[in-house]
Amino acid sequence: MRHYPVFLDLQGRPVLVVGAGKVALRKAKGLIDAGALVTVVAPKSLPEFDDLPLRLLRRPFRPSDITGAVLVFAATDDRRVNHRIKLLAKVRGIWANIADSAAECDFIVPARVRRGDVHIAISTGGQSPRISAALRQKLDDLLS
User: Fold this and answer.
1) Which of 22, 35, 67, 108 is 20 to 30 A off residue 56, Cα-Cα?
2) 142 and 122 in contact (C-beta within 8 Å)?
3) Which CATH class is domain 111-143?
4) CA neighbours within 13 Å on the CB side: how many for 131?
5) 82: closest CA among 107, 102, 59?
6) What's the pTM?
7) Exposed / middle / buried, residue 6 (Cβ in 10 Å: 0-12, 13-18, 19+)
8) Quick one: DSSP state of residue 118?
């Protein structure tokens, strides 16, 4: 097993999401639900971002955007930008999740089911997100 499962307390902690497409939206919503102080940086964004309680910077990523973040999520459609974010985060000792490169991730985000205080996380170590999603759906249906 390559990963060590853990649940993080992100309440009131700054987290950076770079990108504002569907993947970034899913990440941002989960982080907000966990109480993180989310900043999203992207030149353009899906309209759904406007209704979320986060800081939205509509511009390209800058290296200084990482300053102060406890976690970074790179979810752009530009491989070079995502890789650059990984390198910058590594130098600063900040864990990064790189949406288009499991090999560059310091951590992965599992499929999750939540019912009140019960949280269930499902992971295939990034190898088969479809299996994780299918199991999440079955558990969600079972607990409903």
Assistant:
1) 108
2) no
3) alpha beta
4) 7
5) 102
6) 0.92
7) exposed
8) E
pLDDT at 116: 86
Taking 80 as the threshold, does the pLDDT of residue 22 lie above it? Answer: yes
Q: Does domain 14-104 have CATH number 3.40.50.720?
A: yes
Q: Is a pLDDT exceeding 80 seen at residue 103?
A: yes
pLDDT of residue 1: 54
Give the contacts of 50 (CB within 8 A, at least 6 positions apart): 56
Cα 40 to Cα 20, 28, 35, 44: the distances in Å are 7, 8, 15, 10
CA distance 19 to 45: 8
> What element of type H or E holds 130?
helix 129-143
Higher pLDDT, 39 or 140: 39
- Could you identify the residue written with the tokens 């973040």? 69
Token output for 104: 């560059």
In this structure, what token pair is assigned to residue 86?
């990984």
Here the tokens at position 6 are 């853990």
Give, as one character, the DSSP assignment of residue 51: G
pLDDT given at position 2: 78
Contact 56, 45 (CB under 8 A): yes
- Which residue ranges make up each domain of the chain? 14-104, 111-143
